Amino acid sequence: MNGACAWITHRDCRLHEMGEGHPECPERLDAISDYLVSTGLMNLLIPYEAPAATPEQLGRAHAMLYVRELMASAPREGYLQLDPDTSMNPHSLSAALHAAGAAVLATDLVLGGEVQRAFCAVRPPGHHASREAAMGFCLFNNVAVGIRHALDFHGLQRVALADFDVHHGNGSEDILAGDERVLMVSTFQRDLYPFLGNVPLGLNMENVALERGTGGAELRRAFEDSWRPRLEAFRPQLLFISAGFDAHRADEMGGLRWVEDDAAGAEAPEFAPGSLADGLSIRAARFGFSFSNASSITARSVASDFFHVTSSSRASASVINPAMSWQV
Ligand SMILES: [Zn+2]
Questions:
Q1: Which residues surround ligand 1, an ion (CB under 5 A)?
Q2: Mind listing the pLDDT tens digit for each residue in 240-292?
Q3: 166: CA distance to ligand 1 center in Å?
Q4: Model-level pTM?
Q5: Looking at the annotation, which residues are catalytic?
Q6: Among 259, 254, 263, which Cα is nearest to 307's?
């Protein structure tokens, strides 16, 4: 393993948008890339262009009927409304195909030994997309497509998914529940959209519902008491991290009160053992919604925990030392 980290994205991910004022907007990608460029961290990443996922790859996580319907329904102009929060513009299908394809490429790169970690900077996000439906800003479930590629194409036997976000990753649970080759651990705010997750759908699900107002201490206790034992017992060969930063206290979508260090702690070596998955991990980020303030707080939190550096740190070779930074 060489400690290298891939940065995977596609230009069409910026062209997908769902109307004036929609919180899931192209600037979310800019916030993180601007931060990484301004700090010099981007120079440490190996850039890749995401390929489009194939119907066969998508069909490992989604019903083929849904895949075909979505591919056939992309609008030539204007918007096609898929659910109250989710729509497609003429670029959305391409963005969604490349977002899912990023997870496939990340899996190939990590399992092929070309990089140790990969970061998928893509949108639309994926964790609300279920086997048969778009939902909550999500079209295809990017991380589930990557996980099934690791299992069904590469033949891995144990893959873990860590999902933390203010919202429950109901789509990922819908697709992966009952698949004993997968362990999904998640935290989310109880009784918030999508109002699911209180009762896990399978034995391979470790759902930790947090009360409104929960901060870092309770969060770390949840990780320690619930996530860690399950992950250590499962011994994943590969770890996917599906990270949303809308649990940040500056984010108005939810009522959790994380700060940057809490998110970093969720992925710190002392939480998840450095030996976990032999340090192999793939991260499909879902950014928070508070990026628009001048401090780009979401970008900072993503970058800080991504590299295990604080916002005052500067790029150095050590930030991609696998002993320091096993995630992404
Ligand atoms: Zn969310």
A1: 165, 167, 244, 246
A2: 988 776 766 667 667 777 666 665 555 544 444 334 565 566 766 554 554 44
A3: 5
A4: 0.85
A5: 128
A6: 263
